[in-house]
Amino acid sequence: MAESSSNKKPKTVDFELCFICQLRSKQIDYTNYVLHPSLHSIGKLIISTDFRCSYGETEFSALKDRISGLSADELLQKSVSYHKTCYKDLTNKTHIERAKRRYDKGQASASDVKQKRKGRPSKSTSTCTSTSRPTCTRSQIFDKEMCVFCQEERADNLHDVSTENMGAQLKTIGQQTTNEHLKVRLSNVVVSSDLLTAVAEDMKYHLMCLSHAKRDIEKAKRQIPKDHIKFAQLVSDVEILDLVETEINNSTHESVLNMNDIEKSYVCLLEANGFTLPDYPRYKPYLKQLILDNIPDVHFTRPPDKTKPEQILSTKHKETLLAGALSNDPKDLKDDVKVLLKAAKILRKDIANAPPWKFQGSFDNYEPPPLLQIFCKYAIQGVHEIKSTSRAESIKQSASILAQHFVCACKTNRQVTYETKHEDITFKHRTETPMFEPTSS
After folding, report:
1. Which of 253, 275, 284, 392 could make an S-S bridge to 270, C-beta 3.0–4.6 Å?
2. Do 240 and 297 sit in the same domain of this protein?
3. Cβ-contact 204, 147 below 8 angstroms
4. Are 237 and 208 within one domain?
5. What's the average model confidence in pLDDT over 267-294?
6. Residue 335 has pLDDT above 80, yes or no
7. Domain with 299 in it: what CATH number?
8. Domain that holds residue 281
């Protein structure tokens, strides 16, 4: 058999085809074809072929036979050509390093097998005979030609693991997943410190399966036991009730609790106690009922402005606020209105007694009524003494301008009480005037 195999004639090389794959001619896919490679590229092709074959990749044995000891110069003279994709796949450094690691790992495992001691195996080295849990080997549940996640043949495209980033993602999934079979398939990736372990093992995946695996891990993180949820919420309820009761007893008119602040505090307490919040937490109705059931003498009031939240206060505090509001209403307000009415009469009399003045292009010679000027000044600056000269001049000018507006807008008693006899606008058309021209109806 050895003689017959050695007497076989080597296959002839068709240099009109791709030198690497020997499948397609130069006339097809010429945009992806290298017709005249450089001497350096051919040398790299020869070296890469030797490496791939030495690391046990038998698919390149035919290419090594085609080279059969030819040098780069000889191949260049024979007008060797190849596809760009074939050349890139052959000379890819990552693929060569992966093949080397796989080869070294195989050699190490083979040496371990040889070093096993002879004799009957002891109990410590015997296979596990426990019947509590069925076990399976990695090779039984892992087909490298299929998706590492689903291990099914689907119409979706399979993607090769070729980067450290993807290796890191698979390692994280292997550490966090609850799928026991997937844990076994990714066991080598999880144990190894090299992120390219998944690359070396030629792992493949579907994008959809990768997305589902990540989603299942996130879903498992959010599924907290019900007992823990009840305990976290119970602790938060006790803390928020204590906080609200303390604030109500110590609150003043300037600082009244509202439901927005209470809800924010409650959410912070839930997070601190390990409670997983929903996307849009809304606890106001729950908190309102919780407070009414557990804190006595509590009232909720809605401000007149509907955009503001409900306020919460005790019965004692509510009575204090109501008493303060009532004390400011009836008698004092009535007296203030009387004072203002009396001041308005004095100012109107002062304006009516002011000497007539005619505008002649400037207000320099205008002097507003003295009492009106004083009133505007006090309304602007109050009764405080002004020490700055520039500030005093500015206030005096503002008071003068305000007094001018008062005088201009002031109406006499006749102007206020007078009513026209003909309110109908057609009066203008029915009354004869010097410019009136009657029209035939």
Report:
1. 275
2. yes
3. yes
4. no
5. 83
6. no
7. 1.10.10
8. 226-318
Strands 257-258 and 159-160: unpaired
Query: Got the DSSP string for 81-149?
Result: -EEHHHHHHHH-HHHHHHHHHHHHHHHHHHHHHHTPPPSS--GGGSPP---SS----GGGS--TTSBTT
Q: 408 is written with which tokens? A: 């201009």
Alpha-helical (H) ranges within 150-222 are 164-176, 180-185, 187-191, 197-200, 207-222
Q: For the chain, give me the number of helices (H) and strands (E)? A: 20, 7
- In our burial notation (b when 16+ CB lie closer than 10 A, e otherwise), range 20-45 reads bebeeebeeeeeebbeebeeebbbbb
| 85 and 160 within one domain | no
Q: Are the C-beta atoms of 368 and 350 separated by less than 8 Å?
A: no
Cα separation, 81 vs 87, in Å, equals 10
Instruction: Clarify whether residues 6 and 102 are in a common domain.
Output: yes
User: Cβ distance 63 to 52 under 8 Å?
Assistant: no
Model-level pTM? 0.29
Q: Can you tell me the distance from the alpha carbon of 114 to that of 122, in angstroms, rounded to the nearest whole number?
A: 18
Total structural domains within the chain: 4
- Tens digit of each residue's pLDDT (9 = 90 or more) over 338-384: 788 888 888 888 888 888 877 777 777 778 888 888 888 888 887 77
Q: Where are the beta strands (DSSP E) in 274-415?
A: 298-301, 311-314
